Each structure stands twice: as C-alpha cells, then as structure tokens.
C-alpha cells in the first residue's frame, strides 16, 4: 500500500515513474525462439569498430533475466587462449543503455590483431577478433564494404562470407544497416518469409531498440561483427525513408508524431547498438569522422542524410533545385572534409558516403542523390579537381546496384573526357550492390537485365561496370601502386549458401584516375589472421566483478535527452527503498523544481518537465537522507 501511495504521489506531482521492460520476448516484439540459450546472456554476440592505430571500440549486449544493474568485465589479449592479456576492465550497464556495453580500449599497438571477450552473470561471451589500423610505411590494405541489408528481403549470406575472410583490415558499412518498415512492408519476400520485429513500422526509441536487437540476433551478421572491426555510417532507413534534417518521405506528422522525436530516438538506439565512437549524444548527430591507414590512405566517412541535409527538390524545374542555400553536407561538415583532405599526406583519399555523386544519364538528375543538390556537388567536384593527383576514390551504397565510374566533371563531352586515357577525370567511384535489399529485378519483376545494362553503358561513357540484379559486397584492395575493387555476389534466397562468386574486378593505377578491367581478383595478404572461436570460453570467476560502490545504495545512469525541449528522463538504480529529493536550479541559484519521492528498490525511469522555464542551463541535484547523490547539468533548448 505504501508503494501504491508513492506512485500515486508521483503522478499527482507531475512525474511519470515506471520500471523499464526488456526489449525482447513475445510481449516486447521478439519471440524467445530467436534467442540461442547456449549464448545467454550474450545472445547478440560481440562486435568491434572504429579502429585507430592505438585503440578500438568493443561492444556487446547483456540480456539479464530481470531488470537490474549488470556488472560486466572485459579482457583483451593477443591470442585466442588469453595467455597474453594486454588490457582488462569493468563496466556497468542497465536499461538506460538498453543493456549495451561499449568500451574504447586504448594504449594498443598499431597493425595488430587482438582477441577479446566479456563476462557477466557468471557467463562469458563468445570471443571477438579485432584489429588496429596500421601506421606509416603501410604497403597493403584490404577492406570489405557493402550497404543495404533488409532482413525481410533475404538471408545475410554476404555477412557470412565476409566473416570467413581472414585478411581484412576492416569492414565498411555505408548505411541502411536496418530498415524501419513493418512486416510485409518494403522488401518483404513471400518466398523467404523473414519477418521484422516488432511487426509495425518503428517510430519510438523502444521500437528502434527492438529492431536493432532483432537484426543483431541474425547469426551471419553476428559472425561478421565477431571477426572484423566495422566502420559504419548511417543512411536513411536507420531513421525513415529519404531522411533529411527536418523530415522524411514516409513520416507523417499527424499520424506518426513529431519527426524530431522520432529521429532522436532512432539516433540514440543506433549509437547504443553500433560499435561506433562518438561524443555523448546531446541531440546533435555528428558522426562524420576520418580514419588514417598510415601513409597509404585516409578514409573520410560522411553523413549525407541527417547532419545538415535540406529537403530535396521535387524535380529540376523546382526553384529549389538550383538554390545555392540548399545543402547536402552543410557548411560545417564540408569544411571539415576539405580541411581533412588538405591536411593529408596519404597516397589515396577515400570518401565513404551513402549516395552516388556520378551522373547516370545526361541531364538526368536524381533528387535523392548528389545530382539533386547541384550547388554543393559542384563545390565537392571543384575541390577534388584541385588536387594534382587523381587518387580520389568515392565509395557509395544506397542504390542496390553495382556501379563503377570514372569521375569526370563533363563525362558526356568527348572533348573533355576520354575513357581510354583518363583525360578529364579526377578519381573514381565504386558503388556496392545491396547485401540484401530489393534489386532492380526484385523491385520490377519480369525485367531483363542485359538490355538495360547495355543501354546504361552506351549512354554513360564514364560507366565502366554495372550490374542491376545481384546481391553481394565489394573487396577493396589498396597498395601504393593501385586500387582494385572486386565485386562478389552471394545468394539471399536460402540460408547458409556457399555461393561467393567473383563477378568483375576493376582497378585504377595511382595518379591515373580511370578504371580498367582486371583479369582476376586481387591477391590477398600472405598473413592470415586466426579466426575467433565460435563458442564461448569456459567461465571463471577469478576476475572481480563490479557492483554498486561500497556503502552506496544508488547509481545514477543518466539523464536523457539532454538537451531537451522540456521533458527529461532520469535513470536511477537503488538497492533499498528510500525517500529522495530532486531539485533543479537555474544558474542564478533560483530553485525551479523541488520534489520529494519515495521510491522502491530497483531500476527506475523518472520523467520530469521544465516546460515553463526559459531556454538555458540548469543544475539537477539529487539528495537522500545520506546527502547529495549526484549533480547533473541540464540544457533546455
């Protein structure tokens, strides 16, 4: 009765207060049958990402049997037997992080393979394999890249084949890692019958968490993450179709709510569930970043979707089309990119992005791609042309097709561009097929690939290779002499397919800036890394576990969103039932909120509002009878 009175008090006081449910199980959108009990509580495996010369992110997700604060230990070694341990540590996770764990392991050696695992709830995760980036005097880098993996469209055999390669420095994912659609929506194949969870189109933070949760239960995706560090960037479907900064093509405000709220929920879930290094999310989604592979190449991963993308024009007649204030990257990101490229001494500059910069047809602009933003596209072209070399390589996802282009400002002018010599070029563009999203023939059943491909090749002299109908990925092999792209195609209609066929190889020599066909795939590295084992190591409780600090009954796991337009959510874990005081002050010391709450033991979400206060910075203080528990800065925007 006392707890009931306390909860009624909270509601009457203008607070909402609830324990968080798990993002799994039949009542939460994912049936238990999708969870392999032998992997509990690490059902989602492990992942690593954003490697640098001296550090790398490692990631996992713990699924406890009840809602609680979970102590997690991690260890990293040079061998699969963990005889040569180089780093270890502890962490705590709870529902405010959706029970995800993300560690930035530092003080590592460059160009080195490491193995790692996590321990929690008296169990070990599977072992993961990762690798730091090379330093100077690098002679050979191999990357896999792909995009567009719609679970409903087919099986993730491309991920499986990528996992089996043992000489990759990293895997690049260029976006559409998940899809937001409802079961039976876009990409659903009756032949395959793979259904999304939750079944409805995802709109809320919990929805996006469940969808990420569900995708990472796929065994082939787990295998790829287990064996390789990923470098990822989002596209539109991590949020909604054809996303731009303030909206999306398939978001309806009247029926689906505020787009900004949806976008922030999607971004928060992405940052929780992906092995990506990022500053604390405060509503500003800056995830563009660079990676240096010694003096051989610099990789710049761009955000052409969310950061500062203006609404697309309707068509070329739309007055917005040539509006010089309408941007795709935005001034801040574009200047960052130009500065990074200017600072680089690497042989190759590689840009990873979502949408094609090349034209596919004279006077034919795609409103969703770079050609739909002609002003800023020209700024980027002018910048790439300004370099005396021709060693710019643009990597692209999104189209669900394979493309390989020479980059030329005037590809349809025979006096300006010459395909056989590279006259008039400034680099090349390689576009990946979809990992498992509808291709041309699946979107338009009954179409014939060969006539369409021949027409495209005839119409576009700068187009050196195209395939409209196959799924797969690209291996990028880079030396100081040449860059080669090998297109590999896999099967998506059956699980565990052994198909992994080389379709085409194209390359460009250093400083030449045009593509030629290679007779065979690039030779892999002589040194093959030892794969991470497929089963978890036996558990040992010799490593001390984390808990709440001795003598403390509380753990404040965070306040989010922060900044907020008025509503804040406080995550709090306490061991004993207690009365706490929640106070908020402005910077002049004025008390703007003061509430006492009697809360039971457990994990809690406490929602409070500063709707009536002006924009600015506030200080949150949480006190108990034992003194001040914690202080946090709040920003109302």
TrEMBL record:
Keywords: Signal
Sequence ranges assigned to domain PhoD-like phosphatase metallophosphatase in this UniProt record: 143-487
Pfam families in alphabetical order: PhoD (PF09423), PhoD_N (PF16655), Por_Secre_tail (PF18962)
Domain Phospholipase D N-terminal: 44-132
Occurrences of domain Secretion system C-terminal sorting (ranges): 559-635
Cited SUPFAM superfamilies: Metallo-dependent phosphatases
InterPro entries in UniProt: Metallo-depent_PP-like, PhoD-like_MPP, PhoD-like_sf, PhoD_N, Phospholipid_Metab_Enz, Secre_tail
Residues making up the signal peptide according to the UniProt record: 1-18
The protein's name in its UniProt record: T9SS C-terminal target domain-containing protein
Phylogenetic classification of the source organism: Bacteria, Pseudomonadati, Bacteroidota, Flavobacteriia, Flavobacteriales
